[in-house]
TrEMBL record:
PANTHER family: LIPOPOLYSACCHARIDE ASSEMBLY PROTEIN B, TPR REPEAT-CONTAINING PROTEIN PA4667
Keywords: Repeat, Signal, TPR repeat
Organism encoding this protein: Thiobacillus sedimenti
Signal peptide: 1-22
The keyword Signal belongs to this UniProt entry's keyword annotation: yes
Protein name listed in UniProt: Tetratricopeptide repeat protein
Annotated stretches, region: Disordered: 30-59
Amino acid sequence: MTSLKLLPLCAALVLATGCSQLGVKPAQPAATATQPQPPAVAATPHAAAPAPDAIDPASLPKQPLTPDILFKFLVAEVAGQRGDIALADATYLDLARQTRDPRIARRAAEVAMFAHDQAGALDAARIWAGAEPGSDRARQTLAVLLLGEGRFAEAEPVLRELLKQDTATGFLHLSALMGRVRGSADGVALIERLAADYPDLPEARIAVAQAAATAGDNGKALAALAEAERLRPGWEPAALLHAQLLDRTSHADALAFMQGFLAAHPDARELRLAYARALVNANRLDAARTEFTRLTRDFPGNAEVSFAAGLLSLQMGDAATARDLLAQTLENKPRDPNAVQFYLGQAAEQLKQPDVAATHYARIEGGSYLVPARARQAALLAQAGKLDEAVALLKATRGENTAQNVRLIQAQAEVLREAKRYPAAFAALSDGLKRYPDSADLLYDHAMAAEKLGKLDVLESDLRRVIILRPDDAQAYNALGYTLADRTKRVDEAIKLLDKALALAPEDPFILDSVGWAQYRAGNLARAQDYLERAYKLRPDPEIAAHLGEVMWFRGQRDEAGKLWQSSLQNHPQNEVLLETLRRLKP
């Protein structure tokens, strides 16, 4: 249950002494994700000025501490501690209206925001700002709440006062704030009026741009950014927003703009980082790697940069460079060390260092990389001839949730299947289904294991259950349809299932292959060849080549079939389906 922080006991004791003033600073509730936060518009420092939240005792209302006030105060705090936020909210608002004390009004505003009571929070913030007119925090909170409610006319004089304190910083925070409230023409007009008083301030122009962008007016936003860039050439915040706006309509235009900006301002590190990320999104990996490699020199202690550069190097096959960059990332204290250890393991595997890879995987003890790491450890053990150790490792691992535990069972079956221990793989999946009987993933794998053992009744039962659990699972329809076409005489039923699979995934080459094979089994050779040629064009897989060649063979296109098989066999000399087809048709 959510509760508010109770005031310390000593504070209650101070109240109980009967002083004529409330001599405590109200405690703040724990922050929540939905609680509005005031913009941090800092006051200009001044040697003789009090701290921003300090209250001049002489300005406080002469409010005696009556038993009624003390009682309500304690009721509100105890209610918050016990999770009765509504009671705490109502009681504090009543106290704020009764006392007009800025400390109580501030607490009332905080509790009301915590309770998502926007009207109450606004009422309390008005009292607070009125009772403590010199408080920037009170004005900030009031401005946030007014803007959130779309009360732009009321917010305007409050914002004008705040902007007088630190104009440039104030506009930047105002810009960020307008990005969080719903854009509207009135909101844009408000920012334009505020910015008009500061025609030579680039921060004012970027605030207009942000407001216009939030309202969907890209033209006005880009015009304001052009003015900001004229006033302060090479200013990265304006350039970053400019690139984001261009990216809304054209990734190419955004990339071209960033490239041009970096040519003119090569030391713009933040924009270079954005450019590198955009290159990754555009799948321009060579260029992205170049940028990230430069950024590792510009930001030598930045774990995010070295991690991205390492991943790009790994993806491009440069495992040695990836290893060095990922090791550097670990030294820079990354947010997720497990991810770095996992990809260090991947780099070690590419470098043919299985023992080093296993060491990295073993260092992962939790999180989303736990199961992939244990699966790779098990695969390495199995490749080293230690299959029993591999299975034992996976059995001993405990996932953090059901999804991870299901994946561990699948990993057990995978290593057993790779070792051609089909009965053991089937048994592992059968045991898993006792724990998770409605896992569609386990049911699917169990069906595939059953097919290896000729248990077609089990396969059909499992796949029909998957279809019930996941009615849009194209692969379940495909697997069942293909098996019925290939292993039974229920070809008409198979075609209906495969038509459903094709409707769900019309460009899937394996489904096209299944449809073609079912048409072949039904005697429709021309239609079969059309589907199989489409499938092979999308993916030149050896099993698709085997099926297509067989159809061509029986259509009298034996030379073409032989060339197709020979070409596929060169790339896949051990494929069982292809070899079996050749043995059967070309003895």
